[in-house]
Amino acid sequence: MKIAVLPGDGIGPEIVAEAVKVLDALKLDLHLQSAPVGGAAYEASGHPLPPATLELAKASDAILFGAVGDWKYDTLERALRPEQAILGLRKALGLFANFRPAICYKELTHASSLKPELVSGLDILIIRELTGDIYFGQPRGRRSAPDGHFPGAEEAFDTMRYTRPEIERIGHVAFQAAQKRSKRVTSVDKANVLETFQLWKDVMTDVGKQYPDVQLDHMYVDNAAMQLVKEPKRFDVVVTGNMFGDILSDEASMLTGSIGMLPSASLNDKKQGLYEPSHGSAPDIAGKGVANPLATILSAAMMLRFSLGQEAAAQKIEAAVQKVLAQGLRTPDIYSEGTTKVGTQQMGDAVVAAL
Ligand code: NAD
Ligand code: IPM
Ligand code: MN
User: Fold this and answer.
1) If 0-12 CB within 10 Å is exposed, 13-18 middle and 19+ buried, where does residue 137 land?
2) Residue among 70, 71, 87 whose CB has most ligand 2 atoms within 8 A, to mutate
3) Which of 77, 135, 179, 255 is most exposed, with the fewest beta carbons within 10 Å of its own?
4) pLDDT tens, 325-346?
5) Which DSSP string corresponds to 224-247?
6) Residue 86 Cβ < 6 Å to ligand 2
7) Is 353 annotated as a binding residue?
8) Which domain holds residue 336?
9) Which candidate, 124, 67, 130, places its Cα nearest to that of 98?
10) Is residue 243 part of a domain?
Protein backbone atom coordinates (compact mmCIF):
# COMPACT_ATOMS: atom_id res chain seq x y z
CA MET A 1 0.00 0.00 0.00
CA LYS A 2 1.55 3.24 -1.18
CA ILE A 3 1.07 6.43 0.75
CA ALA A 4 2.23 9.84 -0.43
CA VAL A 5 3.21 12.00 2.54
CA LEU A 6 2.92 15.73 1.83
CA PRO A 7 3.74 17.75 4.98
CA GLY A 8 3.57 21.28 3.49
CA ASP A 9 4.00 24.47 5.49
CA GLY A 10 3.72 25.95 8.96
CA ILE A 11 2.69 23.30 11.48
CA GLY A 12 2.20 20.80 8.60
CA PRO A 13 5.59 19.06 9.02
CA GLU A 14 5.23 18.96 12.84
CA ILE A 15 1.82 17.30 12.88
CA VAL A 16 2.47 14.95 9.96
CA ALA A 17 5.62 13.67 11.71
CA GLU A 18 3.42 12.57 14.63
CA ALA A 19 0.92 10.82 12.36
CA VAL A 20 3.77 9.01 10.59
CA LYS A 21 5.14 7.94 13.98
CA VAL A 22 1.75 6.41 14.80
CA LEU A 23 1.52 4.64 11.41
CA ASP A 24 5.05 3.25 11.83
CA ALA A 25 4.19 1.92 15.27
CA LEU A 26 1.34 -0.16 13.79
CA LYS A 27 3.89 -2.18 11.77
CA LEU A 28 1.62 -2.54 8.77
CA ASP A 29 2.92 -3.16 5.27
CA LEU A 30 2.86 0.51 4.22
CA HIS A 31 5.22 2.24 1.82
CA LEU A 32 5.48 5.92 2.68
CA GLN A 33 7.09 8.43 0.33
CA SER A 34 7.36 12.16 1.04
CA ALA A 35 7.27 15.06 -1.40
CA PRO A 36 7.24 18.85 -1.13
CA VAL A 37 3.97 20.76 -1.49
CA GLY A 38 2.68 24.30 -0.95
CA GLY A 39 5.02 27.13 0.01
CA ALA A 40 7.80 24.62 0.70
CA ALA A 41 7.55 23.35 -2.88
CA TYR A 42 7.38 26.89 -4.25
CA GLU A 43 10.62 27.72 -2.44
CA ALA A 44 12.30 24.57 -3.74
CA SER A 45 11.08 24.52 -7.32
CA GLY A 46 8.96 27.59 -8.07
CA HIS A 47 5.59 25.83 -8.00
CA PRO A 48 3.28 24.86 -5.09
CA LEU A 49 2.29 21.56 -6.75
CA PRO A 50 5.32 20.34 -8.72
CA PRO A 51 4.62 17.70 -11.41
CA ALA A 52 6.61 15.07 -9.46
CA THR A 53 4.45 15.62 -6.36
CA LEU A 54 1.26 15.36 -8.39
CA GLU A 55 2.50 12.17 -10.08
CA LEU A 56 3.40 10.64 -6.72
CA ALA A 57 -0.07 11.52 -5.39
CA LYS A 58 -1.78 9.98 -8.43
CA ALA A 59 0.24 6.79 -8.15
CA SER A 60 -0.53 6.32 -4.44
CA ASP A 61 -3.41 4.52 -2.73
CA ALA A 62 -3.73 7.42 -0.32
CA ILE A 63 -2.22 10.80 0.49
CA LEU A 64 -1.44 12.01 3.98
CA PHE A 65 -1.43 15.80 3.81
CA GLY A 66 -0.42 18.38 6.43
CA ALA A 67 -1.35 21.94 5.55
CA VAL A 68 -0.22 24.67 3.18
CA GLY A 69 -0.03 28.44 3.27
CA ASP A 70 1.69 31.36 4.88
CA TRP A 71 0.95 35.05 4.98
CA LYS A 72 4.19 35.77 3.14
CA TYR A 73 2.77 34.24 -0.06
CA ASP A 74 -0.43 36.32 -0.04
CA THR A 75 0.91 38.75 -2.63
CA LEU A 76 2.02 36.08 -5.14
CA GLU A 77 -0.04 35.66 -8.29
CA ARG A 78 -2.85 33.24 -7.44
CA ALA A 79 -1.57 30.29 -9.51
CA LEU A 80 1.63 30.22 -7.43
CA ARG A 81 0.07 30.50 -3.97
CA PRO A 82 0.40 27.49 -1.65
CA GLU A 83 -3.38 26.98 -1.43
CA GLN A 84 -3.39 26.11 -5.15
CA ALA A 85 -1.62 22.87 -4.25
CA ILE A 86 -4.49 21.49 -2.22
CA LEU A 87 -7.09 22.78 -4.68
CA GLY A 88 -5.06 21.30 -7.56
CA LEU A 89 -4.81 17.90 -5.86
CA ARG A 90 -8.55 17.82 -5.13
CA LYS A 91 -9.34 18.66 -8.75
CA ALA A 92 -6.71 16.45 -10.41
CA LEU A 93 -7.71 13.39 -8.38
CA GLY A 94 -11.44 14.09 -8.50
CA LEU A 95 -11.72 14.14 -4.70
CA PHE A 96 -15.31 15.37 -4.63
CA ALA A 97 -16.49 13.89 -1.33
CA ASN A 98 -15.09 15.50 1.80
CA PHE A 99 -15.95 13.87 5.13
CA ARG A 100 -15.43 16.06 8.20
CA PRO A 101 -16.65 14.27 11.32
CA ALA A 102 -17.16 16.54 14.33
CA ILE A 103 -17.08 14.29 17.35
CA CYS A 104 -16.85 15.63 20.89
CA TYR A 105 -14.86 13.12 22.92
CA LYS A 106 -16.36 12.96 26.38
CA GLU A 107 -13.04 14.01 27.92
CA LEU A 108 -13.18 17.27 25.92
CA THR A 109 -16.68 18.36 26.84
CA HIS A 110 -15.14 21.17 28.88
CA ALA A 111 -12.70 22.25 26.16
CA SER A 112 -15.47 23.46 23.86
CA SER A 113 -16.44 27.10 23.93
CA LEU A 114 -20.06 25.97 24.25
CA LYS A 115 -21.75 24.75 27.43
CA PRO A 116 -20.87 21.10 28.18
CA GLU A 117 -24.49 19.92 27.97
CA LEU A 118 -24.78 21.27 24.41
CA VAL A 119 -21.82 19.29 23.10
CA SER A 120 -21.56 16.17 25.26
CA GLY A 121 -22.05 13.12 23.04
CA LEU A 122 -21.95 15.23 19.89
CA ASP A 123 -21.34 13.25 16.67
CA ILE A 124 -21.99 15.14 13.44
CA LEU A 125 -20.75 14.15 10.00
CA ILE A 126 -20.31 17.09 7.66
CA ILE A 127 -20.15 16.03 4.03
CA ARG A 128 -18.77 18.84 1.92
CA GLU A 129 -18.79 18.76 -1.89
CA LEU A 130 -15.17 19.54 -2.75
CA THR A 131 -14.60 20.00 -6.48
CA GLY A 132 -17.36 22.38 -7.56
CA ASP A 133 -19.14 25.55 -6.45
CA ILE A 134 -17.67 29.04 -6.43
CA TYR A 135 -14.22 27.53 -5.75
CA PHE A 136 -13.85 26.27 -9.30
CA GLY A 137 -16.59 28.01 -11.36
CA GLN A 138 -15.52 29.97 -14.42
CA PRO A 139 -15.32 32.77 -15.37
CA ARG A 140 -13.57 34.53 -12.57
CA GLY A 141 -11.23 37.46 -12.52
CA ARG A 142 -10.75 41.19 -12.27
CA ARG A 143 -11.74 43.77 -14.80
CA SER A 144 -13.20 47.20 -15.31
CA ALA A 145 -16.92 47.00 -14.44
CA PRO A 146 -18.92 46.94 -17.68
CA ASP A 147 -22.15 48.18 -16.05
CA GLY A 148 -23.91 48.62 -12.69
CA HIS A 149 -23.67 51.53 -10.26
CA PHE A 150 -19.98 52.14 -10.91
CA PRO A 151 -19.25 51.44 -14.61
CA GLY A 152 -15.52 51.47 -15.30
CA ALA A 153 -14.62 50.84 -11.67
CA GLU A 154 -12.24 48.02 -10.72
CA GLU A 155 -14.35 44.87 -10.24
CA ALA A 156 -13.75 41.25 -9.22
CA PHE A 157 -16.05 38.31 -9.89
CA ASP A 158 -16.35 34.57 -9.26
CA THR A 159 -18.89 32.09 -10.58
CA MET A 160 -20.98 29.87 -8.33
CA ARG A 161 -21.91 26.80 -10.33
CA TYR A 162 -23.12 23.22 -9.89
CA THR A 163 -24.33 20.64 -12.40
CA ARG A 164 -27.03 18.09 -11.56
CA PRO A 165 -24.63 15.08 -11.69
CA GLU A 166 -22.21 16.78 -9.29
CA ILE A 167 -25.01 17.29 -6.78
CA GLU A 168 -26.40 13.80 -7.33
CA ARG A 169 -23.13 12.03 -6.57
CA ILE A 170 -22.50 13.92 -3.32
CA GLY A 171 -26.16 13.35 -2.44
CA HIS A 172 -25.73 9.59 -2.78
CA VAL A 173 -22.61 9.76 -0.59
CA ALA A 174 -24.56 11.60 2.10
CA PHE A 175 -27.64 9.35 2.06
CA GLN A 176 -25.52 6.19 2.11
CA ALA A 177 -23.50 7.57 5.04
CA ALA A 178 -26.76 8.36 6.86
CA GLN A 179 -28.01 4.81 6.32
CA LYS A 180 -25.10 3.63 8.47
CA ARG A 181 -25.89 6.22 11.18
CA SER A 182 -29.11 7.65 12.57
CA LYS A 183 -30.73 7.94 9.11
CA ARG A 184 -31.07 11.72 9.02
CA VAL A 185 -29.64 14.12 6.44
CA THR A 186 -29.75 17.90 6.61
CA SER A 187 -29.02 19.51 3.26
CA VAL A 188 -27.76 23.06 3.71
CA ASP A 189 -28.41 25.57 0.94
CA LYS A 190 -29.25 29.18 0.10
CA ALA A 191 -32.10 28.38 -2.28
CA ASN A 192 -34.02 31.46 -1.17
CA VAL A 193 -31.47 33.62 -2.98
CA LEU A 194 -29.21 31.58 -5.28
CA GLU A 195 -30.17 29.62 -8.43
CA THR A 196 -27.21 27.29 -7.82
CA PHE A 197 -28.64 26.28 -4.48
CA GLN A 198 -32.23 25.97 -5.74
CA LEU A 199 -30.85 23.31 -8.08
CA TRP A 200 -28.95 21.83 -5.12
CA LYS A 201 -32.15 21.60 -3.09
CA ASP A 202 -34.19 20.16 -5.99
CA VAL A 203 -31.57 17.49 -6.70
CA MET A 204 -31.18 16.55 -3.02
CA THR A 205 -34.95 16.10 -2.86
CA ASP A 206 -34.86 13.88 -5.97
CA VAL A 207 -31.95 11.76 -4.70
CA GLY A 208 -33.65 11.47 -1.31
CA LYS A 209 -36.60 9.68 -2.94
CA GLN A 210 -34.24 6.75 -3.57
CA TYR A 211 -33.59 6.50 0.18
CA PRO A 212 -37.03 6.27 1.79
CA ASP A 213 -35.45 5.04 5.03
CA VAL A 214 -33.54 8.32 5.45
CA GLN A 215 -35.22 11.50 6.65
CA LEU A 216 -34.19 14.58 4.66
CA ASP A 217 -34.46 18.15 5.95
CA HIS A 218 -33.45 21.32 4.16
CA MET A 219 -31.99 24.28 5.99
CA TYR A 220 -30.72 27.66 4.83
CA VAL A 221 -27.06 28.17 5.55
CA ASP A 222 -27.54 31.21 7.78
CA ASN A 223 -29.96 29.28 9.98
CA ALA A 224 -27.63 26.25 9.93
CA ALA A 225 -24.77 28.41 11.21
CA MET A 226 -27.00 29.56 14.05
CA GLN A 227 -28.44 26.11 14.85
CA LEU A 228 -24.93 24.63 15.01
CA VAL A 229 -24.20 26.69 18.11
CA LYS A 230 -27.75 26.72 19.48
CA GLU A 231 -28.57 23.03 19.34
CA PRO A 232 -25.77 21.14 17.58
CA LYS A 233 -27.02 17.69 18.54
CA ARG A 234 -30.08 18.12 16.30
CA PHE A 235 -27.74 17.35 13.35
CA ASP A 236 -26.53 13.97 12.16
CA VAL A 237 -25.30 14.04 8.54
CA VAL A 238 -25.00 17.53 7.07
CA VAL A 239 -24.45 17.76 3.31
CA THR A 240 -23.58 21.00 1.62
CA GLY A 241 -21.58 22.74 -1.09
CA ASN A 242 -17.91 23.55 -1.16
CA MET A 243 -17.96 27.03 0.35
CA PHE A 244 -20.71 26.57 2.93
CA GLY A 245 -19.03 23.30 3.96
CA ASP A 246 -15.71 25.06 4.42
CA ILE A 247 -17.22 27.61 6.77
CA LEU A 248 -19.58 25.32 8.68
CA SER A 249 -16.87 22.71 9.31
CA ASP A 250 -14.59 25.26 10.97
CA GLU A 251 -17.57 26.36 13.06
CA ALA A 252 -18.37 22.75 13.99
CA SER A 253 -14.77 22.11 14.99
CA MET A 254 -15.20 24.30 18.04
CA LEU A 255 -18.00 22.01 19.22
CA THR A 256 -15.35 19.29 19.55
CA GLY A 257 -13.02 21.46 21.62
CA SER A 258 -10.64 22.71 18.94
CA ILE A 259 -9.99 22.85 15.22
CA GLY A 260 -6.98 20.72 16.14
CA MET A 261 -9.38 17.79 16.71
CA LEU A 262 -11.17 17.81 13.31
CA PRO A 263 -9.86 15.25 10.80
CA SER A 264 -10.95 14.92 7.20
CA ALA A 265 -11.06 12.51 4.30
CA SER A 266 -11.46 13.59 0.68
CA LEU A 267 -12.45 10.72 -1.58
CA ASN A 268 -12.96 10.11 -5.27
CA ASP A 269 -15.10 7.40 -6.85
CA LYS A 270 -12.18 4.93 -6.69
CA LYS A 271 -11.85 5.27 -2.91
CA GLN A 272 -8.48 6.87 -3.42
CA GLY A 273 -8.27 9.53 -0.79
CA LEU A 274 -6.46 12.53 0.58
CA TYR A 275 -6.39 12.72 4.36
CA GLU A 276 -5.67 15.96 6.16
CA PRO A 277 -6.67 17.87 9.25
CA SER A 278 -9.45 20.38 8.53
CA HIS A 279 -7.32 23.23 9.81
CA GLY A 280 -4.59 25.19 8.07
CA SER A 281 -0.87 25.76 8.53
CA ALA A 282 -1.39 27.89 11.67
CA PRO A 283 1.57 30.23 11.03
CA ASP A 284 0.93 31.86 14.41
CA ILE A 285 2.08 28.75 16.30
CA ALA A 286 4.36 27.09 13.71
CA GLY A 287 7.76 25.95 14.99
CA LYS A 288 6.75 26.23 18.64
CA GLY A 289 6.01 22.56 19.17
CA VAL A 290 2.54 23.24 20.54
CA ALA A 291 0.25 22.32 17.62
CA ASN A 292 -2.33 19.64 18.29
CA PRO A 293 -1.45 16.60 16.12
CA LEU A 294 -4.66 14.69 16.89
CA ALA A 295 -6.65 15.89 13.86
CA THR A 296 -3.84 14.59 11.64
CA ILE A 297 -3.49 11.35 13.59
CA LEU A 298 -7.27 10.83 13.36
CA SER A 299 -7.04 11.58 9.62
CA ALA A 300 -4.49 8.77 9.34
CA ALA A 301 -7.07 6.51 11.02
CA MET A 302 -9.63 7.55 8.40
CA MET A 303 -7.05 6.73 5.73
CA LEU A 304 -6.61 3.21 7.07
CA ARG A 305 -10.39 2.76 7.16
CA PHE A 306 -11.46 4.27 3.83
CA SER A 307 -8.55 3.76 1.44
CA LEU A 308 -6.49 0.89 2.87
CA GLY A 309 -9.13 -1.51 4.19
CA GLN A 310 -7.53 -1.61 7.66
CA GLU A 311 -10.55 -1.10 9.90
CA ALA A 312 -8.95 -2.78 12.93
CA ALA A 313 -5.88 -0.53 12.75
CA ALA A 314 -8.10 2.54 12.37
CA GLN A 315 -10.01 1.61 15.51
CA LYS A 316 -6.75 1.03 17.35
CA ILE A 317 -5.65 4.60 16.63
CA GLU A 318 -9.02 6.03 17.65
CA ALA A 319 -8.97 4.06 20.89
CA ALA A 320 -5.41 5.24 21.58
CA VAL A 321 -6.45 8.87 21.08
CA GLN A 322 -9.33 8.39 23.48
CA LYS A 323 -6.93 6.84 25.98
CA VAL A 324 -4.46 9.75 25.97
CA LEU A 325 -7.35 12.15 26.43
CA ALA A 326 -8.57 10.04 29.35
CA GLN A 327 -5.03 10.23 30.78
CA GLY A 328 -5.55 14.00 30.86
CA LEU A 329 -2.92 14.94 28.26
CA ARG A 330 -3.74 18.16 26.39
CA THR A 331 -2.06 20.41 23.87
CA PRO A 332 -2.72 24.09 24.73
CA ASP A 333 -5.71 24.40 22.34
CA ILE A 334 -7.71 21.79 24.31
CA TYR A 335 -6.28 22.50 27.76
CA SER A 336 -8.63 22.99 30.69
CA GLU A 337 -8.00 23.18 34.40
CA GLY A 338 -6.94 19.95 36.04
CA THR A 339 -5.38 18.46 32.88
CA THR A 340 -1.72 18.17 31.86
CA LYS A 341 -0.33 20.43 29.15
CA VAL A 342 1.89 18.67 26.60
CA GLY A 343 3.54 19.59 23.30
CA THR A 344 3.06 18.17 19.80
CA GLN A 345 5.71 15.45 20.10
CA GLN A 346 4.70 14.38 23.60
CA MET A 347 1.14 13.99 22.37
CA GLY A 348 2.30 11.84 19.45
CA ASP A 349 4.49 9.76 21.75
CA ALA A 350 1.57 9.25 24.13
CA VAL A 351 -0.66 7.99 21.29
CA VAL A 352 2.07 5.54 20.25
CA ALA A 353 2.42 4.35 23.84
CA ALA A 354 -1.34 3.90 24.11
CA LEU A 355 -1.61 1.82 20.91
P1 NAD B 1 -5.65 27.93 10.51
O2 NAD B 1 -6.57 26.77 10.58
O3 NAD B 1 -4.27 27.66 10.02
O4 NAD B 1 -5.53 28.60 11.97
C5 NAD B 1 -6.66 29.17 12.64
C6 NAD B 1 -6.39 29.21 14.14
O7 NAD B 1 -6.46 27.86 14.65
C8 NAD B 1 -5.00 29.72 14.50
O9 NAD B 1 -5.08 30.49 15.68
C10 NAD B 1 -4.20 28.46 14.73
O11 NAD B 1 -3.13 28.62 15.64
C12 NAD B 1 -5.26 27.50 15.28
N13 NAD B 1 -4.93 26.10 14.92
C14 NAD B 1 -5.06 25.53 13.71
N15 NAD B 1 -4.65 24.25 13.75
C16 NAD B 1 -4.26 24.00 15.01
C17 NAD B 1 -3.73 22.86 15.68
N18 NAD B 1 -3.51 21.71 15.05
N19 NAD B 1 -3.44 22.97 16.99
C20 NAD B 1 -3.66 24.12 17.66
N21 NAD B 1 -4.15 25.23 17.08
C22 NAD B 1 -4.44 25.19 15.77
O23 NAD B 1 -6.37 29.03 9.62
P24 NAD B 1 -5.84 30.48 9.12
O25 NAD B 1 -5.01 31.09 10.18
O26 NAD B 1 -7.01 31.17 8.60
O27 NAD B 1 -4.92 30.11 7.85
C28 NAD B 1 -3.51 29.96 7.91
C29 NAD B 1 -2.98 29.48 6.56
O30 NAD B 1 -3.44 28.15 6.34
C31 NAD B 1 -3.51 30.28 5.36
O32 NAD B 1 -2.46 30.42 4.44
C33 NAD B 1 -4.63 29.42 4.81
O34 NAD B 1 -4.86 29.64 3.45
C35 NAD B 1 -4.08 28.05 5.06
N36 NAD B 1 -5.05 26.96 5.15
C37 NAD B 1 -4.68 25.76 4.59
C38 NAD B 1 -5.50 24.66 4.70
C39 NAD B 1 -5.08 23.37 4.05
O40 NAD B 1 -3.90 23.19 3.77
N41 NAD B 1 -5.97 22.43 3.79
C42 NAD B 1 -6.69 24.76 5.42
C43 NAD B 1 -7.05 25.99 5.99
C44 NAD B 1 -6.22 27.08 5.86
C1 IPM C 1 -9.81 23.76 3.89
C2 IPM C 1 -9.08 25.04 3.51
C3 IPM C 1 -9.00 25.16 2.00
C4 IPM C 1 -10.42 25.31 1.47
C5 IPM C 1 -8.12 26.29 1.43
C6 IPM C 1 -6.74 26.30 2.04
C7 IPM C 1 -8.01 26.20 -0.05
O8 IPM C 1 -9.69 26.14 4.11
O9 IPM C 1 -9.34 22.68 3.50
O10 IPM C 1 -10.82 23.83 4.57
O11 IPM C 1 -10.97 26.44 1.46
O12 IPM C 1 -11.00 24.31 1.08
MN1 MN D 1 -11.24 25.63 5.54
Assistant:
1) middle
2) 87
3) 77
4) 999 999 999 999 999 999 999 9
5) HHHHHHH-GGG-SEEEE-HHHHHH
6) yes
7) no
8) 1-96+266-355
9) 130
10) yes
266 annotated to bind ligand = no
**What digits encode the pLDDT tens for the residues 1-30?**
999 999 999 999 999 999 999 999 999 999
Cα 84 to averaged position of ligand 3 atoms, centre (Å) = 13
Residue 265: burial class (beta carbons within 10 Å; 0-12, 13-18, 19+): buried
Determine the Cα–Cα distance for residues 170 and 35; give it in Å rounded to an integer: 30
Ligand nearest the Cα atom of residue 11: 1
Q: Which of 92, 70, 67, 133 is nearest to 299 (CA)?
A: 67
Question: Please, are residues 16 and 38 in contact by the beta-carbon 8 Å criterion?
Answer: no
Return the CATH number at 3. 3.40.718.10
CA of residue 69 to ligand 2 center, whole Å? 10
Decide: 1 and 308 in contact? Cβ < 8 Å: yes
SS3 state at 13: helix
ipTM of the complex: 0.98
Residue type, 15: I
Domain boundary among 256, 274, 289: 256
